Amino acid sequence: MWVALDDVFKRFNMDIQAFRDMIKGQRMDLGEKVYVKMDDVLDYSYHVASTVGLMLLPILAPGKEQSLREDGIYLGYAMQLTNILRDIGEDLERGRLYIPQDLLVKYEYTVTDLKEHRINEAFQSIWEEMARLAEDYYEKAFRTMNLYPMYSRTPVKGAALLYRAILNEVRTNDYNVFSKKHYVSKDAKEKIISSIS
Hints:
Distance between the termini: 34 Å
CATH class: Mainly Alpha
Number of domains: 1
CATH architecture: Orthogonal Bundle
CATH superfamily: Farnesyl Diphosphate Synthase
Largest sheet: none
Strand content: under 5%
Order of helices and strands: HHHHHHHHHH
Radius of gyration: 18 Å
CATH topology: Farnesyl Diphosphate Synthase
Shape: globular
Number of strands: 0
């Protein structure tokens, strides 16, 4: 593994800080952490998701890393927020909560409500506020998607579109993120992938 990574560093203009930041992100999940504001959640999302994009950019789009950096970070935000919104129930079982406290206060929804799996208007409002933010970051990420070479544009854009579609799957299933794992159906996947240009 280390030999392979050394070879990658010799062949491509890798961003070593992204690797360090990813390790910091992994450490964030070692203990219980309370996320007070959305900025705290985005900081976490950068460290565990955006860093992946930054590590891959030199390979996916050699020489275009700087042009794609900002929107690559945004794509990480979008995908991680989608993960958070899809996995609320699963995360709760692991003692983790990535919904910021200020949103719970804003909509008068409690951690107890979450643990009791209450899907009410307040929960939907919290979920939708975070989902709209994720969708905004997807749109920002798509601005520069054309800068990726064709060989990497299709998988990157495809992954983004498939992840974004998870949000509508949750909506279709009445926001049940407590007892159901949401995936995009095979037919929907094929339709999305065939639409990529």
